[in-house]
Amino acid sequence: MNLPVNPVFFTVYTYICCSPRVIINMFNLILFGPPGSGKGTQSAKLVEKYGLIHLSTGDLLRKERQLKTPLGIEAQQFIDKGQLVPDEVVIGMISSALDENPAARGFLFDGFPRTVAQAEALDKLLELKKSSIALVLFLDVNEDELIQRLVNRGKTSGRSDDADESIQRKRQEVYKHETLPVAAHYEKFKKVVHIDGMRGIDDVFSSLAVHIDKKIG
Question: Where do the domains of the chain lie, and which CATH numbers do they carry?
Fold first, then answer.
């Protein structure tokens, strides 16, 4: 077995190399798009229709910390210092989640990967498990619509920062610089399909389903 070259993956390799459980024939999907594009809404509908397991890094972090696993304890140490949890720890948690669900039909990644380094590490992890990302569904929504959605959401949630248009525009800029290149990474492997996210929820879902059905046959 060739060792992965991604430095992120070198660090996490100790967590998964002892039992790289094979997950052949799983359908792994990334639902991609900027903040406000509707990923959360569509993820719930896709999980219900296709029986996929929804992998949210936030949920994984909470679970590992509550269970006080080695990864959870390590993550907590960074959180206590006010630092971001490193990529290698997050990848280790994803590896554990995959191993805990060997009979799953597949996994839906929502909000991850956020950077090209994370995407490369995820690809290496899945390769070790004899699997891969099958499809990246990209929800296209223009920026003005995104800002309007997010500001309106902020007003109803009561969070003043979310209702601040200037803050939301800064978050969109962070997305463009840090996360948007992930799509280019998967474009190289012809795995990205663009979906018009400006339409109604049901219309967007129908388009997502058409492309998933086509891929899984």
Answer: 7-15+29-209 (3.40.50.300)
